[in-house]
Amino acid sequence: MKLYALNILYKGPNNAVWLKCSYDLTSFNYFQRGSVQEFMAFVSKTIVERTHAPARQSVKEGEYMCHVYVRADSLGGVLISDYEYPPRVAHTLITKVLDEFATKIPASSWPSGSESSIDFPQLNVYLAKYQNPREADAMTKIQDELDETKIILHNTIEAVLERGEKLDDLVAKSEGLSVQSKAFYKTARKTNSCCTFG
Amino acid sequence: MQEDPFPAAERILSDIESVFIKDPELKEFDILPITLNQNKSPVHHVENCLGLELWCVRHVYSYAYHRLFDMRQQKNRRADPEVQSRLLIGALLLNPDVQTFWNMRRELVQACRLDCHTELRFTSIVLSRKPKCSEAFSYRKWIVTKLVTGGEKGQSLLNRELNVAKTAANRYANNYHAWQHCIWSLVHLAPCDMYPEIHLEEWTATRIWVTMHISDHSGWQYRQYILQQLCGPLGSKIPHTHEENYLYRYIQPLLHSSNVTQKPSDSDSQLPSAKGDPDQPFQYPFAEDIKKCSNMRIVQCLNFVLSEIDLSTDLITRYPGHEALWYHRRFLLSFLKSFIDQNNCIIISGENSDCRKHKNTFSSTALNNYDLSAECVSFQSRASGGSSGEVTSSDIHVFEIIREMLYLVAQAMSKHEKCFVSSCVAGDENQQRFCSQYNTWLTQVLRLSVPT
User: B326 near B349, Cβ under 8 Å?
Assistant: First the structure.
């Protein structure tokens, strides 16, 4: 059970922008962390842009799960976890974080906001605290309100993309990914495409 | 031979080797996805981590591979051990699945050309990139055995072995080789009869690990191994800790919740059947007598199993739809059943009374599948507290109490499982499937009969 990333984004008319990001990548090898972080940021942005507000989605990709919630006011939250982490708790956490964010940071500053201009240190605290869902605080109230049937489930990230779109193409033309991360993505794809022992 | 060996390979290999020599704190090795030669050294060394750029991997590996196999084929022509070791470091970091390379390192160790402790460090770095490499683990076992034969204390080696294996288990889910390495280390470095407290520590520590890795079959398997040790013949020296009275923690609540009644026609005292009143301290038949046994080992063992069943219940309800949790529960239930059956055998043979009579009485209950095999006799001395000699009347009384308690626990467990199954039938699709499979297993394989 592991949480890797918790990101808050604003979904503008043309594209989404990151407002605040938090990562826990200690379980990855040192040299992979940079690329993994870039890639998780890229996935967060891509997925928020393709979620029609208001909606909740949970996307499975290999051993990872990407949970996304975009509110009616275009504020979006993305949580990337492993497949063991209960989706219900994941969405509860996103809801809670977005609520708190909306009360702390005025909506008028969202469209022009950025990682450096927004002060919301609670994000890191939440990411750390919710690593173990058993120890996360009593969230019964929101859990009752959260209707699990409203979460749209997808078995692959390709299912979230618009018709004709390919993840490989999106990666290739992304400006947010460094050359090294794109190479990392390619090797990872190759490794995962066949069964390997060891 | 290769037509044009990669000229920089020798240089890159010695760079890698010098990082190993220079940095005793080295933690990790990985390949960096840099596909173009930028005319700089492809060897990176940052924050105790060693990285090699992707573009040169092929050339370096091919160079090392061919040179090593050339050496291997011309064994009599003496190869310089230092060169050989350097080539092996490079080759094994890039591809640790080649047994021949590990064997060549074994030969160097045998010839006292390599130090055992340095070898352990090297293997842990190989495992940082390939945490599931069984060759690396078996090489470690070989080195550790060699060290122990050389007179090193097993216990000092144990911690390092457990740490390395658990780091690998964290890196790769369901890492059978890693958890098997933990079991091997316990068996060979700290057997349960000599190091009971280490087993108890592992029992506590893995409890946290498994709750964070609920679908890790191999992690659960390790825990099953420890449970078997704690409750097995080697676990008799397990110290009594944390709970001052084992009875109150799990056994009494279990009996209470399922509201079992005493076994009919097999006891002298005919107490009225229990009522489940939560405000009153629960009084089941023999309650006072059972309290006297609260420090007995059998109660301690039952407590281990029941606490694990309790954890299983919590995790299955909290995280629906994970098959590994259901399989662990099957293990626990069959373990509990055979534990009860086995101890009933001991008691019956210990009472040295008319076995047939008891067998008949039991045959109508949930515990009817025992037989008085030779194996049971070996447990006899344990049950009667070490004195395997004569059986006194007070012993017989204790036997009766324990038998009663075991009966009650078995009956309560049957009820408990049926309740548990019916509480899981709703919700998640996978959960429903696992639950109904478990239910079938309970009745058809475990042959659990539900008391009415």
Answer: no
Could you give the CA distance from residue A161 to residue B84 in angstroms, rounded to a whole number? 52
What are the sequence ranges of the domains in chain B? 1-114, 145-239, 246-262+278-444
A-chain residues near B133 (CB < 8 A)? 198
Q: Whole domain around residue A83: which residue ranges?
A: 3-185
Positions of chain A with pLDDT under 50: 140, 194-198
Search chain A and give the residue with CA nearest B212: A1
Please, how many CA atoms are within 13 Å of residue B404, restricted to the half-sphere of its CB? 25
Burial class (CB in 10 A: 0-12, 13-18, 19+), B300: buried
A118 to chain B, any CB pair closer than 8 A? The answer is: no
Rounded Cα distance, B167 and B173, in Å: 11
**How large is the C-alpha radius of gyration of chain B?**
29
Find out whether B260 and B290 touch, Cβ atoms under 8 Å.
no
Q: What angle do CA A13, A153, A174 make, to 5 degrees?
A: 45
The answer to whether residues B383 and B410 touch, using CB atoms and an 8 Å cutoff, is no
Question: A121 lies in a domain?
Answer: yes
B237-274 burial code (b ≥16 CB/10 A, e <16): ebeeeeeeebbebbbbebbbebebebbeeebeeeeeeb
Whether residue A192 is contained in a domain is answered as: no
B219, B179 contact by CB (below 8 A):
yes
**Smallest Cα distance from A184 to chain B, Å:** 5
CATH number of the domain within which A63 lies: 3.30.450.50
Cross-chain Cβ contact A84/B46 below 8 Å: no
Residue at A196 is within a domain: no
Tell me the three state secondary structure of residue A79. Answer: strand
B358/B268 Cα distance (integer angstroms)? 15
Question: Which residue from A2, A50, A52, A54 is spatially nearest to A26, judged by alpha carbons?
Answer: A2
Cis peptide before A54 (omega within 30 of 0): yes
Taking alpha carbons only, the member of B148, B138, B236, B119 closest to residue B184 is B138
ipTM: 0.87
Q: List the single residue in B with minimal CA-CA distance to A187.
A: B33
Helix and strand totals (H; E) in chain A: 6, 6
Contact residues on chain A for B37, CB-CB shorter than 8 A: none
| Per-residue pLDDT reduced to its tens digit, A168-182 | 889 988 888 998 888
Using an 8 Å Cβ cutoff, are A134 and B211 in contact? yes
Lowest mean pLDDT among B11-25, B291-305, B381-395: B381-395
